[in-house]
């Protein structure tokens, strides 16, 4: 009778952990990133064999934060690292000085570039091309459009 009691609590604990894992996967679409309360996405990574972390930046899109994380993890762990976007890492791009500062610099460059691309893409989707073509010339006096 005691064994059945313990197995039930273990089962519930396992089910709770599985539910939490599924919820966290929905909240965190990529590895190595998290979302702040106010909506920004941040990336950081723990240095190997140390307790310290390398801050990789704060971004407006999860893709940009994930790209920054991928860059840092690639330089720390090499080609065997588990990446979010393995097809986007260039193996020819090698850092000779693999210090935390150089990894942070490279990762923030990649993240900032991706963030700019994502922001431009979102703005172009929200602004149709027709609105861009119909910008008024501010140097001209407005013409009256009188219809008879």
From TrEMBL:
CDD domains: AP2. Residues 1-30, 119-148 are annotated as: Disordered. InterPro entries: AP2/ERF_dom, AP2/ERF_dom_sf, DNA-bd_dom_sf. Signal peptide: none annotated. SMART domains: AP2. One of its GO terms (molecular function) is DNA-binding transcription factor activity. Transmembrane segments: none annotated. Its main location: nucleus. The keyword Transcription regulation applies. It holds the Pfam family AP2. GO terms for cellular component: nucleus. Residues 1-14 have a biased composition (Low complexity). PROSITE patterns: AP2_ERF. Residues 119-130 have a biased composition (Polar residues). PANTHER family: ETHYLENE-RESPONSIVE TRANSCRIPTION FACTOR RAP2-1-RELATED. This is AP2/ERF domain-containing protein.
């Amino acid at each position: 009778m005691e064994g059945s009691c313990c197995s039930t609590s273990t089962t519930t604990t396992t089910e709770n952990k599985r539910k939490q894992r599924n919820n966290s996967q929905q909240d965190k679409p990529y590895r190595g990133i998290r979302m702040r309360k106010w909506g920004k996405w941040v990336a950081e990574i723990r240095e190997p064999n140390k307790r310290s972390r390398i801050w990789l930046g704060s971004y407006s899109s999860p893709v940009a934060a994930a790209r920054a994380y991928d860059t840092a993890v690639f330089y720390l762990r090499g080609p065997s690292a588990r990446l979010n976007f393995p097809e986007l890492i260039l193996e020819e791009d090698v850092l000779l000085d693999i210090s935390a500062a150089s990894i942070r610099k490279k990762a923030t460059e990649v993240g900032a570039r991706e963030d700019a691309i994502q922001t431009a893409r979102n703005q172009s989707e929200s602004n149709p091309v027709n609105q861009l073509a119909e910008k008024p010339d501010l140097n001209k006096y407005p013409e009256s459009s009188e219809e008879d």
